[in-house]
């Protein structure tokens, strides 16, 4: 496998990135749809004869020419929605290093996801400026948005199953997307990362898996723990201090947190340094034999299209993680006896996001819900989270998904969507929950 001279002589660049992390603006989010958007869960490319081919792609984004490597699965079927996985390189690495797997070859291509996915995922390796991810002014986030837009307009993608992963600086970029595009990506995997590429937002939940060596002398494990703890908080996880292996043990310990339904957090600490490919039992860095690719794939493959599994238990082992999945079955939408809605709009140019919190102000639990509202003229939903939305304009009905159908008395549920607009960025003037009018706060 290629050596990860991520920082080596360029360590000063990373130190500078740590000292002056790029500040991300609320740049235009990807216009393609995201998880839990009902009929929008498949991309516009589904059913089309593709024009894209595997290999290096050129794209103009933020007025600059950039590149990425695309791998389309063997036997691609344009009627089948595929997972979409981004692999971001390290400082000094390249998109080609990620796409080929370096000296480890195909078994480590795209951090092992080419092998692990077995032609069930579309894979992307973007190229960073100066072989890094400074993300100045949010340009690398916009680059990612534009890649998504191009791929999904041409290929069949399950837009509820987008993932990002990366090592070191690439891990910092994946963390940046977790902060700013939590409603676009389903989960991220961060290998030996730190906050290097900014964190615009950083308040919404997203499934998160962090992997870090206890003896990392480039990005101390404390920096990886800090990234993890952002999403321990955001995902409503029970606080704990995960057990980590002792120096000299040459093992790894994986811990699954007990978190809010649908938003698992996982942490793997290993006895080793700054590498994404550790091997138990030796001081190796080998993408062919590493355990990380198997655990990363296990983490992201737990998610199914249009659903979010529920992580309900915490376990700690030296080699495996035990989680349980529960499903909430709703049998009807009984009317509630009181509800309150808050709606927060964040608008830019021709786009906006709407964050809606629905509170059950009644005395009985609501089991299964439908929230009806009318969008102002010119607004069209392009993506959403924590609910299915139909239709995408005019009078819209937002329905619960598998993991948030129950709203206890005084409890609430948070949903939201992204939309385009033609100038009117107003809010709906009324909301009804299961047929009953809600108070608007």
TrEMBL record:
Residues 307-331 have a biased composition (Low complexity). InterPro entries: AB_hydrolase_fold (IPR029058), CBD2 (IPR001919), CBM2/CBM3_carb-bd_dom_sf (IPR008965), CBM2_carb-bd_dom_sf (IPR012291), FaeB/C/D (IPR043595). Residues 1-25 form the signal peptide. The keyword Secreted applies. The keyword Hydrolase applies. Residues 303-336 are annotated as: Disordered. Keywords: Carbohydrate metabolism, Hydrolase, Polysaccharide degradation, Secreted, Signal, Xylan degradation. One of its GO terms (biological process) is xylan catabolic process. Pfam families: CBM_2 (PF00553). Residues 332-441 form the CBM2 domain. It is found in: Secreted. Its main location: secreted. GO terms for molecular function: feruloyl esterase activity; hydrolase activity, hydrolyzing O-glycosyl compounds; polysaccharide binding. GO terms for cellular component: extracellular region. SUPFAM superfamilies: alpha/beta-Hydrolases, Carbohydrate-binding domain. Belongs to the faeC family. Involved in degradation of plant cell walls. Hydrolyzes the feruloyl-arabinose ester bond in arabinoxylans, and the feruloyl-galactose ester bond in pectin. Active against paranitrophenyl-acetate, methyl ferulate and wheat arabinoxylan. This is Poly(3-hydroxybutyrate) depolymerase. It comes from Saccharothrix variisporea.
């Amino acid at each position: 496998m290629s050596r990860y001279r991520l920082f080596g002589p360029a360590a000063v660049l990373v130190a500078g990135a740590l000292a002056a992390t790029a500040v991300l603006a609320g740049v235009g989010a990807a216009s393609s749809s995201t998880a839990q958007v009902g009929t929008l869960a498949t991309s516009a490319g589904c059913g089309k004869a593709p024009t894209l081919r595997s290999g290096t792609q050129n794209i103009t984004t933020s007025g600059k020419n950039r590149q990425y490597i695309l791998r389309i699965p063997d036997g691609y079927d344009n009627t089948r929605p595929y997972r979409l996985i981004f692999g971001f390189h390290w400082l000094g690495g390249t998109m080609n290093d990620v796409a080929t797997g370096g000296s480890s070859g195909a078994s480590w291509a795209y951090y092992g996801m080419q092998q692990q996915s077995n032609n069930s995922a579309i894979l992307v390796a973007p190229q960073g400026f100066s072989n890094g991810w400074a993300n100045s002014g949010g340009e690398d986030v916009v680059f990612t948005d534009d890649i998504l837009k191009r791929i999904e307009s041409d290929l069949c993608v399950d837009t509820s199953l987008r993932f990002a992963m990366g090592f070191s600086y690439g891990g910092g970029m994946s963390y940046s997307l977790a902060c700013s595009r939590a409603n676009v990506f389903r989960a991220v995997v961060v290998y030996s990362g730190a906050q290097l590429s900014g964190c615009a937002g950083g308040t919404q939940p997203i499934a998160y898996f962090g992997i870090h060596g206890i003896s990392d002398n480039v990005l101390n494990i404390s920096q990886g723990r800090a990234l993890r703890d952002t999403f321990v908080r955001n995902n409503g996880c029970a606080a704990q201090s995960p057990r980590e292996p002792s120096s000299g043990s040459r093992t790894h310990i994986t811990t699954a947190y007990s978190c809010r339904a649908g938003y698992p957090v996982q942490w793997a600490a290993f006895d080793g340094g700054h590498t994404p490919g550790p091997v138990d039992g030796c001081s190796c860095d080998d993408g062919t034999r590493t355990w990380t690719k198997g655990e990363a794939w296990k983490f992201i493959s737990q998610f199914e299209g249009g659903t979010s599994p529920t992580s309900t238990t915490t376990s700690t082992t030296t080699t495996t993680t035990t989680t349980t999945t529960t499903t909430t079955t709703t049998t009807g939408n009984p009317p509630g006896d009181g509800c309150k809605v808050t709606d927060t709009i964040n608008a830019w140019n021709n786009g906006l996001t709407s964050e809606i919190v629905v509170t059950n102000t009644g005395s009985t639990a609501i089991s299964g819900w439908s929230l009806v509202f009318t969008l102002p003229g010119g607004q069209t939903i392009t993506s959403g989270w924590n609910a299915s939305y139909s239709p995408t304009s005019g009078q819209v009905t937002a329905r619960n998904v598998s993991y948030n159908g129950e709203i206890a008395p005084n409890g609430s549920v948070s949903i939201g969507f992204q939309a385009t607009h033609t100038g009117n960025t107003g809010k709906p003037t009324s909301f009804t929950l299961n047929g009953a009018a809600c108070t608007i706060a």
